Amino acid sequence: DYFTGFTLHRKGWKSVYLYPKKPQFLGTATTNYNEVSIQWTRWASGFTSVAISKFCPLIYGPLKMSWVQFMCYSELAFMPLLNCLSLWGFAFIPQLCLFNDIPLYPKVSDSSFNIFLIIFLSAILKSLYEVVTTGGQVRTWRNDWRIWMMRSITSYFYGSLDVVLNKLGMKEASFLPTNKVIDDEQVKLYEMGIFDFRTATTFLAPLVTVILVNIAAFVRALVVNVVDNDRDGYWEKMFGQMFLSFYILVSNYTVIEGMIIRRDKASIPLSVTLLSGVFSVFILLIGSAILS
């Protein structure tokens, strides 16, 4: 759909904005994490395959369409690749530095800290504004923001990796269809607002690993701050990284709930938690060895 639209607009097709109050199309959306992950992996693969091909909007579109349209198509094409790289970086690099007492951001008292604060708040407020102005609620925004984090480190990563390996001749292109069969149990969990984690370990392990690494970094920072009684302004130096870890944990509370609190069939299996624990220890050890 993306490439078809891109090709048509490049050939001169003119679109009009139509958003009637009465829905013109009704369909069935995915209601569980497994189908969402498969769907977005497929979409990410499609976007990335265009981004690193001869049809890349950066070289194939500028002279044939408006500047705004060209930028929109470029953003979509590179979205999976850029999001997965940036989110993986934000999920581990500040936390590993926090775990090893290495400050990355300016002190809270420094005026340069406001730059990071403004960027962070503007990103959140922008997404909140888009959801609210299109009829959504704060709860809708919160879930959408959480899902964006999840798919950035799983679906976007796997979709982009699949294309890169295919271009290198190391893997054949794959296509996984989304299951459209309605499961009453899954629908019930969806309507109750309960996250269904019944999916492959490849989609769960990265999420749990990120959460465990952030818990380890945040708890260690708290202990150090309390034991040393904020010696040498530790709190002021490390506040940015501590807040980032705390924000990631709060935003992804459903993952923590699925690991520790819930014991139903749709929770995160203990085997996945243990495997992710091994990955987390390995990442912390490697990070400490590199940064020490």
From TrEMBL:
Localization per record: Endomembrane system
Keyword tags: Cell wall biogenesis/degradation, Glycosyltransferase, Membrane, Transferase, Transmembrane, Transmembrane helix
GO CC, alphabetical: endomembrane system; membrane
InterPro entries (alphabetical): Cellulose_synth
The protein, known as: Cellulose synthase-like protein
Record keyword Transferase present: yes
Positions of transmembrane segments: 72-93, 113-132, 203-226, 238-256, 268-291
GO terms of molecular function: cellulose synthase (UDP-forming) activity
GO terms of biological process kind: cell wall organization; cellulose biosynthetic process
Organism (species): Gossypium harknessii
